[in-house]
Structure formats: structure tokens, C-alpha cells
Amino acid sequence: MRKQVVTPAIALLMLLPCGYHASHAADNAVDEDWPAIENCLGIIRGCQMPDGMIRMKGGNSPVWTVPYFGNLAAMALLAANDRRQNAQDAIRVERWLIWYARNQEADGTIFDLEGTVQSYKSNGKRDATDSYAATFLMATWRYAKAVGQHPSPDIVDAAKKALTVIDAVVQNDGLTIAKPEYPIKYLMDNIEVYQGLTEGALFFGSVGLAEQSRKAEQMALRVAGSLGKYWSEEDHVFAFALDMKDKASSGLTQSYPHGLAQLFALSYMSPARPELWTRVRHTFTPGDEGVPIERWLIAAEENAEEEVLGEIRRATRNAALRFAAEDVYLERPAMAVIALLGVEARFPCVPSSPGQDGPRRSGH
């Protein structure tokens, strides 16, 4: 692999992995968790098609793939490989990344696909372009780290296109809209965009693309500097979305998107907000539809007391053991693996920024 380019700002970001202030309970419990992790990995492996595509459900389910979730699945395979090496899983991820590269549109975006095992095609739909591209950048960096060699030209070119995709939806404040035809700035998407750009900068530096590395780094810092706009000092919650005039869509009544948006913020954004954690715990029940238990575990490692963390960890393990290929969508086993594996598998945390746009004064 070529020498990695690490600028001072990116070096600082590398010191801020999520879970850095959490207890070491996650790492100590991995052996006990491994049967649940293996069940999830088996589901993910079974969802991969011969051509590398990873579909949403395995077994006899109709073929449907959402590339965003395929990227999460690839990262779960890599996270497990980091703990217990499995050369076949690294190959599976490479096949996925090449499949993604070959199914990108000319502008670097990618659509969901549907059909049968014998024949499937684009359905012309995609939930977002920003988070699809961001999670692809994360998967490419983690793959490059895992194999320790220069990825194929297809993967490198696809990563360059993914950066272009994100750049195409960046707004004046550095935040991204979900997709060109849907001009809403989602909190969860922008957290993932920050994470993708941060790890994308590391990937580009590792393959000698200094210009793209600097650009991704600068874009990431702009996102971090504007995420404070989602916080409402009046309502003491994070808005889950901002429109083009920065009017917030907020609340704490629905598990999705209200509850899940708070869990994303509690998992990945600093400073810590223990009052928000307590409020979310009192409002929603871990494992309710829209707020899956594995997302609670990631947030708990940043915010919960040891006893509560242990309870949520056991609940995550038990849920993951019950997952079955035809009964669960790909995201759940993927995120369960990442949650159970602990700190080293985590996605980057967004640092506080002195230049951050201030807290919002009003919400809805």
C-alpha cells in the first residue's frame, strides 16, 4: 500500500473514535457474544449473490438490494474479520465493492435493485445519495486497512465518484441534502456523511490521492461545524431534519424518526448530553420498532451506567441470536455485529467545533 497521507486535522479526528470514554465491558464480553455475532455473519454471507451483490434478505426472499445497507453489511464483515480473521469475508467485501462500482450511474450515484435470483435490475429508487456514497467511502477505507494493499482500480474510481456524489448535494453551510430531487438536510444522513468523509480522506490518502484526501477532510470539517444547528435549546432535542431555510422538523413522540435521530446524536456527537439520554430512555423502549436494540447499545456505550449498559448488551445479544435470514432485513444483523464488537468497530465521532453554528433557539 502506498504511504498514507495524514494531515494534522485528520490526525486529530483519528483520535476521536466513538466509545473512547466508554467502559471496556464491550471488549471483555466479546467471547460470550460470539455465537450471536456468528449468527448475524451467517445471515449476511447468505445474502450475497454470486456476482457480489448483497441483498436485503436471504433464503427464498425476492431479490431486493439497497446499497446503503450493503455497505453496512460489508463493514460488519470487516469488523468481525478484524477480531477473528476470515479471508473469505475480506473477499466477500471486495466482491461487494466491485459490484457497487460496476453498478454506479455515470454521475456516481446508485439505485436500489429488485427482481429474482436469476434476473434483477434497477428500480429507479434510492432513499438518498449522500448516505449511500458516505457509507461506501467508509467501507472502502476499512477494506483497504483490512487487506493492507492497494484496492483495485474499480474500487478507487468508485470512491472518487462517491466523493463527487456527496459534493453535488453539499449546501452553503456544508451540510448535505438527501438527494438532488429531495432538498432536506437530515441529521442522521449528515452524521454519516461526516463519518464517510473522514474515513474517505484516510482512504484517498492511503492510495496517493492527496487532492481528494484534502477535499474530503475539508468537507468533513464543514459538516462538523454545522451539526450544532440541529440542536434546540428550547426543546432540548435534536431536530431530525432541516429544510432549505433551516426550519427544523423536531419532536420526541415517534420512535422513527424522532427517537432514532436522538440515538444517532447520542452515539456519535459531542459533547455528551446525559439529560437527553435519560429523556430518550424514559420516552422509548429499547427494541421498539424504529429504535432497534443494537442502536441503543451503541448509544449506551457512550452514555449509560454500567448496569444499564449490561442490560442493553444482553438484550442485543439475545435479539441477534434470534435473527433468521428470511425474517430480518440486512441492517439489523450488520449493526448488531458492529454494536457487539465494541469500540474498534465503531464509526467516527463528530468532534465539537469552536466554529460550530450555535444551538437552535426554536424547533418545529
Walk me through this protein's architecture:
- It is a single chain.
- It is globular and about 50 Å long.
- It has helices at residues 8-14, 25-28, 30-46, 67-83, 87-103, 130-147, 153-168, 187-206, 210-226, 255-268, 274-283, 293-303, 306-322, 331-341, and strands at 63-65, 113-115, 120-122, 185-186, 231-232, 237-238, 241-242, 248-249.
- With 364 residues, the protein is mainly α.
- Helix 4 (67-83) packs antiparallel against helix 5 (87-103).
- The model is unreliable at 1-15, 20-29 and 353-364 (pLDDT under 50).
- It has a single domain, classed as Glycosyltransferase (Alpha/alpha barrel).
- The protein has a three-stranded antiparallel sheet. A three-stranded antiparallel sheet has the order 4-7-8.
- The longest helix has 20 residues, at 187-206.
- It is built from 14 helices and eight strands.
- Strand 5 and strand 6 (237-238) form a beta hairpin.
